[in-house]
Amino acid sequence: MTEADDTGDYARHNARMARVAAAREKMQARRTLERGLLIVHTGNGKGKSSSAFGMAIRSIGWGLKVAILQYVKGKWETGERNFFEAHPDLATFEVMGEGFTWDTQDRALDITAARAAWERSKQMILDPTIDFVILDELNIVLRDDTLPIAEIVAFLKERPLTKHICITGRTAKPELLEIADLITDFTEVRHPYKAGFKAQRGVEY
Amino acid sequence: MTEADDTGDYARHNARMARVAAAREKMQARRTLERGLLIVHTGNGKGKSSSAFGMAIRSIGWGLKVAILQYVKGKWETGERNFFEAHPDLATFEVMGEGFTWDTQDRALDITAARAAWERSKQMILDPTIDFVILDELNIVLRDDTLPIAEIVAFLKERPLTKHICITGRTAKPELLEIADLITDFTEVRHPYKAGFKAQRGVEY
Known about the structure:
2 copies of one chain form a homodimer.
Chain A: H1 11-29, E1 38-42, H2 48-61, E2 66-70, H3 79-86, E3 92-95, H4 101-104, H5 107-126, E4 132-136, H6 138-143, H7 149-157, E5 164-168, H8 174-179, E6 182-190
Parallel strand pairs in A: 1-5, 1-6, 2-3, 2-4, 4-5
Family (chains A, B): Belongs to the Cob(I)alamin adenosyltransferase family.
Main location (chains A, B): cytoplasm
Keywords (chains A, B): ATP-binding, Cobalamin biosynthesis, Cytoplasm, Nucleotide-binding, Porphyrin biosynthesis, Transferase
């Protein structure tokens, strides 16, 4: 694939790439469906939330309207929060969580906070002016059964198909994965935590 | 973990969370290192580039200076390009590629374009005013040996440790993985391509 051929040029490589291009074009032509996707970012690796924020940027770049709701990180200063609060014209950005369950140490409060966040999420999903809804760390709340998975799945099944929804968090429930259109498992291969690094601004938060 | 105990409240859950919090604090205290990380996003799943853009947003939110160089997507209109070109104050954003190798069908051009992009990448990495450098799809160019991996790895090993570098692309070379601090494998679990969906704005580009 990579070497010049005997004549010293890349004629064979270039001809092969022309065949690849033709095959790809044929494959793309078979892909015609277009509608709002239910996207799930899960797994133990780094990048689930940041990838959702990157899709927000892409969507804003196309003139789409984006709403982001963070379920857990409500009390923290994060880079994404600083960014979107400094640029309120770019997207709707709301933080509603009270911290991880070991931060609050108060399950009744966790349940109240999650319920309020879910009610707000439903408004965002039903709002016809919003094209892309990101529910950051909802999987964490579902894993702990702080919200009932059956209720959330029933609502998502009936969602308007005019918008994308992205749900993040490391342990997605099987019931959610079952109805998702796009699932990426973010798999940790190497993490600087294990080499003694602390979480760093811009990377982890 | 999730049910109220016999007394009808969550006292046992809450006490357990207090113990979890103490254990986590002890663990965090052992993580003291802080320096620029070499981050690699690889794997066949969706989200490698968008996760890098999300880290850009986080970094900008902390007042860090970000530079993004795209190796492959030079000829395309993308959401990220639209976004950063509309907001040039937010980050340095440059596109230098000529398209995938099956688009150009011209290996000599691929090599020239990749070389120019790498020379620019080195400037960004050596620029003391830049805190975070994203080299989008560099792995693609390295996989095809359009640039020599040994040269790139030698330079990265000697990089200034005052900044983060994130390299994306589905097939990272083992030589690069060996020197990386943070590696996530984006693993495809389900992709709408396979159900006949075309690539959609805001999600894939």
